[in-house]
From TrEMBL:
One of its GO terms (cellular component) is ATP-binding cassette (ABC) transporter complex. GO terms for molecular function: phospholipid transporter activity. The chain crosses the membrane at residues 12-32, 44-65, 85-108, 148-178, 198-222, 234-256. Coiled coil: none annotated. Pfam families: MlaE. It comes from Balnearium lithotrophicum. This is Phospholipid/cholesterol/gamma-HCH transport system permease protein.
Length: 261
């Protein structure tokens, strides 16, 4: 019994170190090798459109209703104190600091992270990556680096739009559904919300974009086992990326609070 327990713990530790070690090496290579020619700018433009522009509609709809839900949930509490006009500040701060970056990153993970793992995994099992290596094309630079950099940029920009659209959703619910004074609503939002709230969210978005892209590409790059392996890699990529986003959300928040940033 004790021996089996120790074996399980040992396997878990080895798997943990193997995964994060391989992920770290792949991440460093993908970031550093991008600055070596040839640069292939067209691939970066393509992934900016695919990851960023094509993800905007679903993030816009989700953010609009998220802001509306925050306003709905907080109205009853503020109404007791005749402070309904402060709902705008709550919506703005919640979207900027937490919901904007987290929701945007999770949606990008579901839409684009899964596609990264599936596409690269399919190329691995069909030996297309081996063919790139035979043609003297670095597969990490060609396949992974553009995805990593464009995902970071796209996630930051999408988070900024998510913040704005979420606030609009809260404004619509508060002003047009509950009849809150729009002048006070906007004034208290301006007085209570700071740019630091936005900066914190954008920092998180950049980290989340890096995590979801590198983890998804890592699982795809080391796919084994044919079509079944591609499916397993895609599932693991989405689950691992989502967990990493939520874990690092807490860690980043704690660090920023610790240093009063």
């Amino acid at each position: 019994m004790i021996v089996e327990l120790l074996e399980r713990i040992g396997r878990g530790v080895i798997f943990f170190l193997e995964f994060w070690g391989g992920w770290f090496l792949l991440s460093v290579k993908s970031l550093s090798i991008a600055f070596k020619p040839p640069f292939r700018i067209e691939r970066y433009i393509y992934y900016l459109a695919d990851i960023g522009a094509n993800s905007f509609p679903v993030i816009a709809i989700t953010s609009l209703f998220t802001g509306g839900v925050i306003a709905l949930e907080t109205y009853s509490a503020f109404h007791r104190f005749n402070a309904e006009y402060m709902i705008g500040a709550v919506v703005a701060i919640a979207m900027a600091r937490e919901l904007g970056p987290v929701l945007s990153s999770l949606l990008v993970t579901a839409r684009s992270g899964s596609a990264m793992a599936a596409e690269i995994g399919t190329m691995r099992v069909t030996e297309q990556i081996d063919a790139l290596e035979m043609m003297a094309v670095n597969p990490i630079k060609y396949l992974i680096s553009p995805r990593v950099y464009t995902t970071i940029i796209s996630t930051v920009v999408l988070t900024l739009f998510s913040d704005i659209i979420g606030y609009i959703g809260g404004y619509i619910v508060s002003v047009y559904l509950f009849g809150v004074n729009k002048t006070l609503y906007l004034r208290y939002t301006q007085n209570l919300t700071e740019m630091d709230d936005v900066y914190h969210g954008l920092i998180k978005a950049a980290v989340f974009g890096f995590l979801l892209s590198t983890i998804s590409c890592f699982y795809g790059y080391y796919t084994r086992g044919g079509a079944k392996g591609v499916g397993e890699s895609t599932t693991k990529a989405v689950v691992s990326s989502s967990m990493a986003i939520l874990i690092f959300d807490y860690l980043i928040t704690y660090i920023l609070r610790l240093f009063n940033l």
